[in-house]
Write a structure and sequence with these properties.
The chain has 442 residues and is α+β, with helices and mostly antiparallel strands. The protein folds into four domains: 2-166, Alpha-Beta Plaits; 174-260, Glycinamide Ribonucleotide Synthetase, Chain A, domain 4; 268-360 and 407-420, OB fold (Dihydrolipoamide Acetyltransferase, E2P) (Beta Barrel), CATH 2.40.50; 362-404, no CATH class. 17% of the residues lie in helices and 31% in strands. It contains nine helices and 26 strands. A hairpin with a 4-residue loop joins strand 19 and strand 20. Helix 3 (124-131) crosses helix 5 (158-166). The mean pLDDT is 94. It binds adenosine-5'-triphosphate. Adenosine-5'-triphosphate binds next to helix 5.
Protein backbone atom coordinates (compact mmCIF):
# COMPACT_ATOMS: atom_id res chain seq x y z
CA UNK A 1 0.00 0.00 0.00
CA UNK A 2 1.39 3.37 -1.01
CA UNK A 3 0.77 6.73 0.62
CA UNK A 4 1.90 9.74 -1.42
CA UNK A 5 1.81 13.33 -0.21
CA UNK A 6 2.89 16.68 -1.62
CA UNK A 7 2.70 20.41 -1.03
CA UNK A 8 2.35 20.60 2.74
CA UNK A 9 5.04 23.19 3.43
CA UNK A 10 5.61 26.89 2.95
CA UNK A 11 8.65 29.14 3.19
CA UNK A 12 7.61 29.83 6.78
CA UNK A 13 7.87 26.24 7.92
CA UNK A 14 7.31 22.50 7.63
CA UNK A 15 8.86 20.08 5.17
CA UNK A 16 6.94 17.36 3.39
CA UNK A 17 9.65 14.83 4.36
CA UNK A 18 8.86 15.50 8.02
CA UNK A 19 5.31 14.43 7.30
CA UNK A 20 6.74 11.12 6.02
CA UNK A 21 8.26 10.55 9.46
CA UNK A 22 4.92 11.39 11.09
CA UNK A 23 3.05 8.99 8.80
CA UNK A 24 5.47 6.16 9.57
CA UNK A 25 4.93 6.79 13.28
CA UNK A 26 1.16 6.97 12.81
CA UNK A 27 1.10 3.60 11.03
CA UNK A 28 3.22 1.73 13.56
CA UNK A 29 0.54 -0.97 13.63
CA UNK A 30 1.69 -1.79 10.06
CA UNK A 31 5.17 -2.43 8.69
CA UNK A 32 7.31 -0.37 6.36
CA UNK A 33 7.99 -2.41 3.20
CA UNK A 34 10.37 -0.15 1.30
CA UNK A 35 12.49 2.95 1.78
CA UNK A 36 10.37 6.08 2.03
CA UNK A 37 10.83 7.96 -1.25
CA UNK A 38 11.69 11.59 -1.73
CA UNK A 39 10.91 12.38 -5.35
CA UNK A 40 12.02 15.70 -6.82
CA UNK A 41 9.96 17.03 -9.72
CA UNK A 42 10.51 19.72 -12.37
CA UNK A 43 12.80 22.31 -10.74
CA UNK A 44 11.48 25.01 -13.08
CA UNK A 45 7.79 25.02 -12.11
CA UNK A 46 6.88 28.51 -10.92
CA UNK A 47 4.82 27.47 -7.88
CA UNK A 48 7.35 25.26 -6.06
CA UNK A 49 8.29 26.27 -2.50
CA UNK A 50 11.93 25.19 -2.61
CA UNK A 51 13.06 21.89 -4.02
CA UNK A 52 9.78 20.63 -5.52
CA UNK A 53 9.83 17.37 -3.56
CA UNK A 54 7.00 14.92 -2.86
CA UNK A 55 7.08 11.82 -0.64
CA UNK A 56 5.82 8.25 -0.86
CA UNK A 57 5.79 5.59 1.85
CA UNK A 58 5.00 1.90 1.37
CA UNK A 59 3.33 0.11 4.25
CA UNK A 60 1.56 -3.18 4.76
CA UNK A 61 2.10 -6.45 6.60
CA UNK A 62 5.68 -7.61 6.80
CA UNK A 63 7.20 -10.95 7.68
CA UNK A 64 10.59 -10.17 9.08
CA UNK A 65 12.78 -7.16 9.63
CA UNK A 66 15.29 -6.59 6.85
CA UNK A 67 17.29 -3.46 7.43
CA UNK A 68 17.32 -0.51 9.81
CA UNK A 69 16.69 2.77 8.03
CA UNK A 70 15.79 5.22 10.76
CA UNK A 71 14.94 6.13 14.28
CA UNK A 72 11.78 8.10 14.90
CA UNK A 73 11.90 7.81 18.68
CA UNK A 74 11.70 4.09 17.97
CA UNK A 75 13.75 2.11 15.47
CA UNK A 76 12.47 1.91 11.89
CA UNK A 77 13.06 -1.18 9.75
CA UNK A 78 12.13 -2.21 6.24
CA UNK A 79 10.29 -5.54 6.32
CA UNK A 80 9.99 -8.36 3.86
CA UNK A 81 6.48 -8.22 2.42
CA UNK A 82 3.88 -10.74 3.52
CA UNK A 83 1.10 -12.00 1.25
CA UNK A 84 -1.68 -10.35 3.23
CA UNK A 85 -2.60 -6.90 1.90
CA UNK A 86 -4.27 -4.24 4.05
CA UNK A 87 -7.44 -2.47 2.96
CA UNK A 88 -7.02 1.06 1.64
CA UNK A 89 -10.09 2.33 3.46
CA UNK A 90 -8.41 1.89 6.80
CA UNK A 91 -5.88 4.51 5.79
CA UNK A 92 -7.70 7.54 4.44
CA UNK A 93 -8.96 9.13 7.66
CA UNK A 94 -5.66 8.59 9.42
CA UNK A 95 -3.59 10.11 6.60
CA UNK A 96 -5.99 13.06 6.34
CA UNK A 97 -5.70 13.69 10.07
CA UNK A 98 -1.89 13.77 9.88
CA UNK A 99 -1.84 16.08 6.85
CA UNK A 100 -4.32 18.45 8.53
CA UNK A 101 -2.28 18.39 11.74
CA UNK A 102 1.03 19.31 10.06
CA UNK A 103 0.44 21.01 6.70
CA UNK A 104 0.66 24.80 6.51
CA UNK A 105 -2.97 24.95 5.41
CA UNK A 106 -3.34 28.67 6.18
CA UNK A 107 -0.69 29.54 3.61
CA UNK A 108 -2.07 30.55 0.18
CA UNK A 109 0.72 28.72 -1.64
CA UNK A 110 0.25 25.45 0.23
CA UNK A 111 -2.20 23.15 -1.55
CA UNK A 112 -1.70 19.65 -0.15
CA UNK A 113 -2.56 16.49 -2.00
CA UNK A 114 -2.60 12.95 -0.61
CA UNK A 115 -3.16 9.68 -2.45
CA UNK A 116 -3.52 6.14 -1.15
CA UNK A 117 -2.99 3.47 -3.77
CA UNK A 118 -2.34 -0.22 -4.06
CA UNK A 119 -0.61 0.11 -7.40
CA UNK A 120 1.60 2.66 -9.08
CA UNK A 121 0.31 4.76 -11.98
CA UNK A 122 2.10 4.61 -15.34
CA UNK A 123 5.66 5.93 -15.25
CA UNK A 124 4.72 8.52 -17.86
CA UNK A 125 3.25 10.67 -15.05
CA UNK A 126 6.64 10.83 -13.38
CA UNK A 127 8.50 11.46 -16.62
CA UNK A 128 6.20 14.33 -17.54
CA UNK A 129 6.27 15.87 -14.04
CA UNK A 130 10.04 15.75 -13.66
CA UNK A 131 10.66 17.28 -17.10
CA UNK A 132 7.68 19.42 -17.96
CA UNK A 133 4.57 21.13 -16.63
CA UNK A 134 1.67 18.77 -15.93
CA UNK A 135 -1.87 19.74 -16.70
CA UNK A 136 -4.12 19.10 -13.68
CA UNK A 137 -6.78 17.55 -15.98
CA UNK A 138 -4.38 14.71 -16.84
CA UNK A 139 -3.95 13.94 -13.14
CA UNK A 140 -7.69 14.19 -12.41
CA UNK A 141 -8.43 11.77 -15.26
CA UNK A 142 -6.02 9.20 -13.82
CA UNK A 143 -7.44 9.64 -10.30
CA UNK A 144 -10.97 9.07 -11.66
CA UNK A 145 -9.90 6.07 -13.71
CA UNK A 146 -7.84 4.24 -11.10
CA UNK A 147 -8.77 2.77 -7.74
CA UNK A 148 -7.12 5.52 -5.72
CA UNK A 149 -8.33 7.11 -2.52
CA UNK A 150 -7.31 10.74 -2.48
CA UNK A 151 -7.88 14.18 -1.09
CA UNK A 152 -6.73 17.55 -2.40
CA UNK A 153 -6.84 20.72 -0.32
CA UNK A 154 -7.38 24.31 -1.57
CA UNK A 155 -6.59 24.35 -5.30
CA UNK A 156 -5.57 20.64 -4.99
CA UNK A 157 -2.31 21.14 -6.89
CA UNK A 158 -0.47 18.87 -4.48
CA UNK A 159 -2.21 15.92 -6.16
CA UNK A 160 0.02 16.49 -9.21
CA UNK A 161 3.19 15.95 -7.19
CA UNK A 162 1.72 13.09 -5.15
CA UNK A 163 0.61 11.12 -8.23
CA UNK A 164 3.85 11.80 -10.10
CA UNK A 165 6.02 10.74 -7.15
CA UNK A 166 3.99 7.55 -6.87
CA UNK A 167 4.75 6.89 -10.56
CA UNK A 168 8.55 7.00 -10.12
CA UNK A 169 10.37 3.72 -10.95
CA UNK A 170 13.95 4.12 -9.75
CA UNK A 171 16.26 3.60 -12.73
CA UNK A 172 19.09 5.69 -11.38
CA UNK A 173 18.70 6.64 -7.72
CA UNK A 174 20.56 7.87 -4.64
CA UNK A 175 19.82 8.10 -0.91
CA UNK A 176 19.50 10.93 1.57
CA UNK A 177 19.72 10.55 5.32
CA UNK A 178 17.55 13.28 6.79
CA UNK A 179 17.68 14.29 10.43
CA UNK A 180 15.06 16.39 12.21
CA UNK A 181 15.20 18.85 15.08
CA UNK A 182 13.35 18.84 18.38
CA UNK A 183 10.21 20.93 17.97
CA UNK A 184 11.40 23.61 20.39
CA UNK A 185 14.43 24.23 18.11
CA UNK A 186 12.41 24.85 14.92
CA UNK A 187 13.16 28.30 13.54
CA UNK A 188 16.27 28.73 15.72
CA UNK A 189 19.83 28.76 14.45
CA UNK A 190 21.27 25.29 13.79
CA UNK A 191 24.25 24.41 15.95
CA UNK A 192 26.52 22.35 13.74
CA UNK A 193 30.27 22.27 13.53
CA UNK A 194 31.65 22.95 10.03
CA UNK A 195 34.79 20.88 10.79
CA UNK A 196 32.64 17.78 11.44
CA UNK A 197 30.97 18.25 8.08
CA UNK A 198 34.30 18.58 6.25
CA UNK A 199 35.62 15.46 8.01
CA UNK A 200 32.46 13.53 7.27
CA UNK A 201 32.59 14.57 3.63
CA UNK A 202 36.16 13.28 3.38
CA UNK A 203 35.43 10.04 5.22
CA UNK A 204 32.26 8.92 3.40
CA UNK A 205 33.45 7.69 0.02
CA UNK A 206 29.99 7.27 -1.53
CA UNK A 207 28.56 10.54 -0.23
CA UNK A 208 28.38 13.64 -2.42
CA UNK A 209 27.36 17.30 -2.46
CA UNK A 210 27.61 17.63 1.31
CA UNK A 211 30.31 20.27 1.46
CA UNK A 212 31.06 22.98 -1.08
CA UNK A 213 34.84 22.93 -1.34
CA UNK A 214 34.88 25.80 -3.81
CA UNK A 215 32.77 28.18 -1.77
CA UNK A 216 34.00 26.68 1.50
CA UNK A 217 30.57 26.23 2.98
CA UNK A 218 28.54 23.36 4.33
CA UNK A 219 25.72 22.10 2.12
CA UNK A 220 23.82 19.79 4.48
CA UNK A 221 21.82 22.15 6.70
CA UNK A 222 19.05 24.28 5.19
CA UNK A 223 18.65 27.98 5.98
CA UNK A 224 14.89 27.79 6.28
CA UNK A 225 12.94 27.49 9.54
CA UNK A 226 11.85 23.93 8.60
CA UNK A 227 12.20 20.90 10.93
CA UNK A 228 15.22 19.48 9.07
CA UNK A 229 18.52 19.64 10.98
CA UNK A 230 20.64 18.33 8.11
CA UNK A 231 20.54 15.92 5.16
CA UNK A 232 23.47 13.84 3.92
CA UNK A 233 23.42 12.55 0.35
CA UNK A 234 25.09 9.45 -0.95
CA UNK A 235 24.93 6.22 -2.88
CA UNK A 236 25.29 3.78 0.01
CA UNK A 237 22.53 3.91 2.65
CA UNK A 238 24.59 2.02 5.23
CA UNK A 239 27.54 4.33 4.85
CA UNK A 240 25.23 7.33 5.33
CA UNK A 241 24.40 6.17 8.86
CA UNK A 242 28.02 6.86 9.86
CA UNK A 243 27.30 10.57 9.44
CA UNK A 244 25.16 10.41 12.59
CA UNK A 245 28.25 9.65 14.66
CA UNK A 246 30.50 12.11 12.84
CA UNK A 247 28.39 15.23 13.14
CA UNK A 248 28.39 16.61 16.65
CA UNK A 249 26.53 19.64 18.01
CA UNK A 250 22.75 19.83 17.98
CA UNK A 251 21.35 16.33 18.42
CA UNK A 252 18.62 15.24 16.01
CA UNK A 253 15.34 14.10 17.49
CA UNK A 254 14.76 11.62 14.65
CA UNK A 255 16.41 10.43 11.44
CA UNK A 256 15.29 8.55 8.36
CA UNK A 257 16.91 7.40 5.11
CA UNK A 258 15.01 8.18 1.91
CA UNK A 259 15.45 6.66 -1.54
CA UNK A 260 15.50 9.57 -3.97
CA UNK A 261 15.84 10.60 -7.61
CA UNK A 262 18.23 13.37 -6.57
CA UNK A 263 21.49 13.66 -8.52
CA UNK A 264 20.18 11.60 -11.45
CA UNK A 265 19.61 14.22 -14.20
CA UNK A 266 16.14 12.71 -14.67
CA UNK A 267 14.89 16.22 -15.44
CA UNK A 268 17.16 16.59 -18.49
CA UNK A 269 16.20 15.78 -22.09
CA UNK A 270 18.46 16.15 -25.12
CA UNK A 271 17.01 18.85 -27.34
CA UNK A 272 17.66 21.18 -30.23
CA UNK A 273 17.42 24.89 -29.41
CA UNK A 274 14.11 25.31 -31.23
CA UNK A 275 12.55 22.48 -29.18
CA UNK A 276 13.63 23.82 -25.78
CA UNK A 277 10.43 25.13 -24.25
CA UNK A 278 10.16 27.32 -21.17
CA UNK A 279 9.89 25.63 -17.75
CA UNK A 280 11.62 22.47 -18.99
CA UNK A 281 15.27 21.42 -18.71
CA UNK A 282 17.49 20.41 -21.58
CA UNK A 283 20.87 19.25 -22.75
CA UNK A 284 21.74 21.25 -25.85
CA UNK A 285 24.81 21.09 -28.07
CA UNK A 286 25.92 24.11 -30.10
CA UNK A 287 28.49 26.74 -30.93
CA UNK A 288 29.25 29.87 -28.93
CA UNK A 289 28.49 32.91 -31.12
CA UNK A 290 29.14 35.84 -28.79
CA UNK A 291 31.75 36.78 -26.22
CA UNK A 292 30.38 36.33 -22.66
CA UNK A 293 29.23 39.62 -21.07
CA UNK A 294 28.71 40.56 -17.44
CA UNK A 295 25.42 42.21 -16.57
CA UNK A 296 24.23 43.99 -13.44
CA UNK A 297 24.21 41.66 -10.48
CA UNK A 298 27.28 39.78 -11.68
CA UNK A 299 25.43 37.41 -14.02
CA UNK A 300 27.24 36.24 -17.18
CA UNK A 301 25.40 35.82 -20.46
CA UNK A 302 26.41 34.64 -23.94
CA UNK A 303 24.70 33.39 -27.07
CA UNK A 304 24.96 29.99 -28.65
CA UNK A 305 23.47 28.46 -31.80
CA UNK A 306 22.72 25.12 -33.37
CA UNK A 307 21.18 24.30 -36.75
CA UNK A 308 17.70 25.17 -35.46
CA UNK A 309 18.30 28.57 -33.83
CA UNK A 310 19.94 30.67 -31.15
CA UNK A 311 19.57 30.88 -27.38
CA UNK A 312 21.04 33.00 -24.58
CA UNK A 313 22.85 30.98 -21.92
CA UNK A 314 23.33 32.29 -18.39
CA UNK A 315 25.56 31.61 -15.42
CA UNK A 316 23.87 33.57 -12.66
CA UNK A 317 25.67 35.18 -9.71
CA UNK A 318 24.96 32.30 -7.28
CA UNK A 319 27.02 30.00 -9.52
CA UNK A 320 30.07 31.92 -8.16
CA UNK A 321 33.37 30.44 -9.43
CA UNK A 322 31.68 28.67 -12.34
CA UNK A 323 31.28 32.11 -13.91
CA UNK A 324 35.07 32.36 -14.24
CA UNK A 325 34.95 29.30 -16.51
CA UNK A 326 32.08 30.68 -18.59
CA UNK A 327 33.86 34.04 -18.98
CA UNK A 328 36.69 32.28 -20.84
CA UNK A 329 34.47 31.04 -23.69
CA UNK A 330 34.90 32.65 -27.09
CA UNK A 331 32.96 32.60 -30.35
CA UNK A 332 33.48 29.33 -32.17
CA UNK A 333 33.82 27.10 -29.08
CA UNK A 334 31.75 23.93 -29.40
CA UNK A 335 29.91 23.08 -26.19
CA UNK A 336 27.06 21.14 -24.63
CA UNK A 337 25.00 22.74 -21.89
CA UNK A 338 22.67 21.18 -19.33
CA UNK A 339 20.12 23.51 -17.74
CA UNK A 340 16.65 24.85 -17.15
CA UNK A 341 14.89 27.02 -19.72
CA UNK A 342 13.56 30.34 -18.49
CA UNK A 343 10.67 31.90 -20.36
CA UNK A 344 11.21 35.63 -20.66
CA UNK A 345 13.66 36.27 -22.19
CA UNK A 346 14.21 32.67 -23.31
CA UNK A 347 17.43 31.73 -21.49
CA UNK A 348 19.19 28.51 -20.59
CA UNK A 349 20.24 28.60 -16.94
CA UNK A 350 23.46 26.52 -16.98
CA UNK A 351 23.85 23.61 -14.55
CA UNK A 352 26.70 21.81 -16.31
CA UNK A 353 28.84 22.41 -19.37
CA UNK A 354 30.91 20.14 -21.54
CA UNK A 355 33.49 21.64 -23.86
CA UNK A 356 33.68 19.61 -27.05
CA UNK A 357 36.05 21.80 -29.04
CA UNK A 358 38.01 24.93 -28.20
CA UNK A 359 38.49 27.60 -30.85
CA UNK A 360 42.09 28.77 -31.25
CA UNK A 361 42.63 32.19 -29.67
CA UNK A 362 45.50 34.24 -31.13
CA UNK A 363 46.93 37.65 -30.42
CA UNK A 364 49.00 39.84 -32.79
CA UNK A 365 52.59 40.11 -31.60
CA UNK A 366 54.04 42.32 -34.33
CA UNK A 367 53.50 43.62 -37.88
CA UNK A 368 54.99 41.51 -40.70
CA UNK A 369 58.60 42.04 -41.82
CA UNK A 370 59.20 43.55 -45.25
CA UNK A 371 60.57 40.74 -47.49
CA UNK A 372 62.86 43.26 -49.27
CA UNK A 373 64.43 45.35 -46.50
CA UNK A 374 63.63 43.27 -43.42
CA UNK A 375 62.07 46.23 -41.53
CA UNK A 376 58.67 46.01 -39.81
CA UNK A 377 55.84 47.15 -42.05
CA UNK A 378 53.22 49.72 -41.01
CA UNK A 379 49.52 49.11 -40.62
CA UNK A 380 47.20 50.67 -43.21
CA UNK A 381 44.24 50.68 -40.79
CA UNK A 382 41.97 48.14 -39.17
CA UNK A 383 41.97 44.95 -41.24
CA UNK A 384 43.47 46.89 -44.18
CA UNK A 385 46.81 45.06 -44.26
CA UNK A 386 50.41 46.44 -44.08
CA UNK A 387 52.84 48.42 -46.21
CA UNK A 388 56.58 48.97 -46.00
CA UNK A 389 57.12 52.71 -45.84
CA UNK A 390 60.48 52.39 -47.60
CA UNK A 391 59.98 49.71 -50.27
CA UNK A 392 56.17 50.13 -50.71
CA UNK A 393 55.75 46.34 -50.49
CA UNK A 394 52.35 45.27 -49.20
CA UNK A 395 51.27 42.40 -46.93
CA UNK A 396 47.87 41.03 -45.99
CA UNK A 397 46.40 41.31 -42.48
CA UNK A 398 46.89 37.58 -41.82
CA UNK A 399 50.66 37.88 -42.42
CA UNK A 400 51.19 39.68 -39.10
CA UNK A 401 53.03 37.60 -36.48
CA UNK A 402 50.62 36.07 -34.01
CA UNK A 403 50.88 33.90 -30.96
CA UNK A 404 48.46 31.38 -29.56
CA UNK A 405 46.84 32.44 -26.28
CA UNK A 406 46.41 29.86 -23.54
CA UNK A 407 42.66 29.48 -23.09
CA UNK A 408 42.76 28.23 -19.49
CA UNK A 409 40.01 25.77 -20.44
CA UNK A 410 40.06 22.08 -21.29
CA UNK A 411 37.88 19.89 -23.44
CA UNK A 412 36.09 18.42 -20.45
CA UNK A 413 33.06 19.01 -18.20
CA UNK A 414 32.50 21.80 -15.71
CA UNK A 415 29.67 22.19 -13.20
CA UNK A 416 28.25 24.83 -10.88
CA UNK A 417 29.42 24.60 -7.25
CA UNK A 418 27.51 22.43 -4.78
CA UNK A 419 25.84 25.46 -3.20
CA UNK A 420 24.21 26.37 -6.55
CA UNK A 421 23.35 22.84 -7.64
CA UNK A 422 19.83 21.65 -8.38
CA UNK A 423 18.69 18.65 -6.32
CA UNK A 424 18.19 16.71 -9.55
CA UNK A 425 21.52 17.63 -11.18
CA UNK A 426 23.87 14.70 -11.50
CA UNK A 427 27.23 15.79 -10.08
CA UNK A 428 30.24 15.08 -12.31
CA UNK A 429 31.46 12.54 -9.75
CA UNK A 430 28.40 10.41 -10.70
CA UNK A 431 28.29 11.30 -14.39
CA UNK A 432 29.82 8.70 -16.71
CA UNK A 433 29.72 10.99 -19.73
CA UNK A 434 32.32 13.20 -18.08
CA UNK A 435 33.81 11.03 -15.37
CA UNK A 436 37.25 10.35 -16.83
CA UNK A 437 38.11 13.97 -17.53
CA UNK A 438 35.84 15.98 -15.23
CA UNK A 439 36.99 19.28 -13.76
CA UNK A 440 35.39 21.31 -11.03
CA UNK A 441 34.86 25.00 -11.69
CA UNK A 442 37.86 26.24 -9.73
P1 LIG B 1 9.71 21.25 -0.60
O1 LIG B 1 10.67 20.73 -1.61
O2 LIG B 1 10.32 22.20 0.33
O3 LIG B 1 8.95 20.13 0.04
P2 LIG B 1 8.36 22.11 -2.79
O4 LIG B 1 9.38 22.96 -3.45
O5 LIG B 1 8.18 20.67 -3.04
O6 LIG B 1 8.60 22.15 -1.31
P3 LIG B 1 5.65 22.21 -3.11
O7 LIG B 1 5.14 22.87 -1.89
O8 LIG B 1 5.61 20.74 -3.17
O9 LIG B 1 7.07 22.79 -3.24
O10 LIG B 1 4.95 22.84 -4.38
C1 LIG B 1 5.11 22.36 -5.68
C2 LIG B 1 3.73 22.27 -6.30
O11 LIG B 1 3.85 22.13 -7.69
C3 LIG B 1 2.97 21.06 -5.81
O12 LIG B 1 1.62 21.43 -5.66
C4 LIG B 1 3.10 20.05 -6.94
O13 LIG B 1 2.01 19.18 -7.02
C5 LIG B 1 3.18 20.95 -8.13
N1 LIG B 1 4.00 20.40 -9.20
C6 LIG B 1 5.18 19.80 -9.07
N2 LIG B 1 5.68 19.45 -10.28
C7 LIG B 1 4.80 19.87 -11.19
C8 LIG B 1 4.76 19.81 -12.61
N3 LIG B 1 5.73 19.28 -13.31
N4 LIG B 1 3.67 20.32 -13.22
C9 LIG B 1 2.68 20.88 -12.52
N5 LIG B 1 2.67 20.97 -11.18
C10 LIG B 1 3.71 20.47 -10.51
Amino acid sequence: MFIAVDDTDSREGMCTTFLATELIREFDDFDLLDYPRLVRLNPNVPWKTRGNGAIVITIGYGKRKNRKIGNLQGEVYIHEEDTEIPKKREFLERVKRKVEQWAELDNDNTNPGLIIADERPSERFYRKAVRDVVDFEMVQKELDRGSYLYKGYDDRRGLVGALSALAWRPGDFTYELLTYRKKDRWGKERELNEKDIINMDGALKKAFDNYDHEEKEQAIAPNSPCPVLYGVRGEDPDELKQALKMIDGEKPERWLIFLTNQATDDHIQEKKISEASPWTSAKIGGKVISEPRIIEGGHILFEMEDVTGKITAAAYEPTKGFREVVKKLISGDKIELWGGIRKDPKTLNIEKMRILGLEEKVEKVSNPECPDCGKRMSSMGTNAGYRCKRCRTKAKEKEAERKKIERGLEETCYEVPVSARRHLSKPLTRDNTCRSTSRRSS
